[in-house]
Amino acid sequence: MKVKLGRIPDDSLIRKYFPADYSDCYQCTVVNDKCITPDDLQIAFWTNKPEWIDTLFKIRNFLVKPFGLKTGEPDAGIIENCIRNSTSTGIFSVVDKTSEETIIRLSDKHLDACISAHFRPVESGSTVMSFITVVHIHNLAGYLYFYPILPFHHIVVKSMVGDTIKRLMRDKG
Questions:
Q1: CA-to-CA distance for 122 and 124, rounded, in angstroms?
Q2: For 72-106, how does the pLDDT look when each residue is reduced to its tens digit (9 = 90+)?
C-alpha cells in the first residue's frame, strides 16, 4: 500500500470550504474488506499517534504556547465520541459527514484547518481513501505559524495516513 499526494476528489464535501490558503490530499487504494469507515480513519488518526509524532506535537505545543495558540488535546474517548456523534469539543468539531466522508475542523484564532477522510469505492472491491487538509489563515500570526511547519505537515500526514490505514486493516473486525 502506497500513500501518495493526489487530487482532491470532485465529489468531496471539502470543496465547499474553498477557496483556501492551502490544501493537499494524500491517497491510497486498498481492498476495504474490513469495512473501515471515514469515522474509523479519523478516530484512529487522531487518537493513536506514534511516539515520534507525539514528541513533535509536544515541541510544537511548547513553542506556540507564548503566542496564544491552543495546545491542549482532548483524550481519545472524547475525540471518538465527537466524531461518531458529529459534535464538538474545544477546537475540534465535526462539520460535515456522509457515509463516504467525515470532515473535522480545528479552529484557533490564527487559522482554521478542515480535515477530511473521504472514501470512494472503485472496481473489484477496492476503495480510494483520501485524507484531505484545507487551511484558512486568519492573520499574519497564522502565516508565521503555518508555513514553517508545512514541511513537517507533509512528513507527518503521509506517514500517519499509511500507518493508520495499515493498523486499521490489521486490527478491525
A1: 7
A2: 666 788 889 999 999 998 778 999 999 999 999 99
pTM of the model: 0.90
Beta bridge partners of 31: 126
Choose among 107, 88, 98: nearest CA to 11: 98
User: What is the per-residue DSSP string for 96-165?
Assistant: EEETTEEEEEEE-SSEEEEEEEEEEE-GGGEEEEEEEEEEEE-SHHHHHHHHHHHHHHHHHHHHHHHHHH
State the CATH number of the domain containing residue 139: 3.30.530
Range of the structural domain that residue 53 is part of: 4-171
State the Cα–Cα distance between residues 129 and 6, nearest whole angstrom: 11
For 158, how many CA atoms within 13 A lie in the half-sphere containing its CB?
12
* Closest of 90, 112, 111, 93 to residue 103, by C-alpha: 93
Question: What is the number of structural domains in the chain?
Answer: 1
Q: Is 70 exposed, middle or buried (0-12, 13-18, 19+ CB in 10 A)?
A: middle
Which of 137, 134, 150, 144 lies closest to 67 in space, CA to CA? 144
- In what helix (H) or strand (E) does residue 43 lie, and over which residues does it extend? helix 38-47
| Geometric angle at alpha carbon 15, from 10 and 17, rounded to 5° | 175
93 vs 104: CA distance, rounded Å: 5
